[in-house]
Amino acid sequence: MVDPFGVLGLIGTIDTTYHWGKELVALCKASANAEARLHESVVRVEACWLKIQIQLEFVRRLEPQLSEWHKNIQQQTLEVLLHKLQAANTKLSGLVKKSNALPNDAGEEIIIVEVKRPKYAFVKESLMEAITDLEVWQGIFDPSWFLMMKIAGPEVDQQLYFMSQQQSVSTHKGTKAAIPAAQHLRLALKPVDDDSTKKTVYLLPDGLITESVQPLPYSPVRIARRATTGQLVVLDPITCTSRASINSALRDIRNFARRLQQTDPFTFGLLQCKGILSEEDSNDTDVKIRNVAPASLSFVFRMPPTHSYVQSLRHRLLSGPSGEHSSLTARFDLARQLVKAVSYVHLYEFVHKNIRPETILILSNGSHVSIDAGGDEKAGAYSETAVLVGFDVLRDAEGKTHRLGDDDWEKNLYRHPHRQGKTPETDYNMRHDIYSVGVCLLEVGLWESFIEYDNVNAKEQEALKQISLETTNLRLSSLVKDRLLQLARGVLRRKMGIKYSKVVETCLTCLDPNNEDFGDEKEFQDMDGVAEGVRYIEKVVQRLGEISV
């Protein structure tokens, strides 16, 4: 059977999406007019849809510039949205009684509906389901949309400017969020004079309250407060064991800090970087820039003021079944946030090289859901987001690394067998990050920590169940990978379902020559470096996002 959306093409699919989106918003507004208690939920639906509208218009304008791969992933994602919009419209229409549409002062038809009191709870539930569907879909769509910022040529900048001018009169927060974030990303990806970054991203030690600096349990980072504002920051220590050239390493460190100065942690899963802190005694900033060693530097990341509670994923995993992510829904949310954050690290043209539960932080607002007299959830409910830190061995995605490593077992567990030990076999690339993501997704799905700590936080060298091997030997490290795959195909599948386990398996085998999704390296050689990002979004981000819980 021919897919009707495929026949439409990308532009036709966008037009059809507009139609169903407008229908849903109109129906939601009519429901709110009939029942005041639905107003807050309808505002959230409208905000989601307004942002989507802007993003779809941007796709329409740039459609001629998109590669076939990029067009395909956009259309596939839109088809998911279309099905969700149609289902939401059908379900909501069946719960309300429509009257004849009446024109308003502008001549537009306004739908009039009646929400019968016995059905109020079902209408409320349908609206909340629509909100969840739109927000989850947004998380699937955003990575491929922001990937357009890597397209070379002036057309992207021209359309960003044009649409920002169009939206300048809008007062709705949701309608303005996408374009400014895209403009900041586009600017961050532009090359700059390295001398200018030396002057703008280095910070002095006296900018922190010394007494406030404290380690975060089960993580390499520390938490501190700024002296001037008292704002919480994360100090992420930098080491570059894989870099032989200090100057090259410092250049990449400065460039990474500059690129993350305007990032949004709730969109990108990356904290805003205030700058680089040097903890050497010298007060001469110029001397520090010329002579500082990476080991004495830390990234200074801003904590969002609304989410000041922080834990590492390792801390959560060690809490066992009683942890906040013991439910299926919470685990899927965390998994989706993690895979998106990794896609944005690569979008910023860097590889992480150190993805593991210790370098994944979970930020929360510390609130809890409250219920009003009508039995509805009130604003200010508990929320959290996962962000990546631990950028201690990062390099730009196109740069070369000297093959220097370590024998740290608990780190090797998250490394592909070809990247373990003191002399890894191959150069690092984005797919090595994807492998690490697979190991983390396996832990999240099982909700068990592969690394154990005793009561005094000394690391034990027993991590993976039934395996205790020295992983400096390729044959033995491959056995660990085989064991991980065995868990993914067995216990994980029973706990999280076939689709989730397939995503984990795809990540763990992404460097295998017979992997259908990532095995052919020639497919990822394109001018803008978009192809590998598109494939990761299609095979990991999108597939994980489409799973219903």
TrEMBL record:
Single annotated GO MF: protein kinase activity
InterPro entries, sorted: Kinase-like_dom_sf, Prot_kinase_dom
PROSITE patterns tied to this protein: PROTEIN_KINASE_DOM (PS50011)
Domain spans labelled Protein kinase: 207-549
Protein name as it appears in the record: Protein kinase domain-containing protein
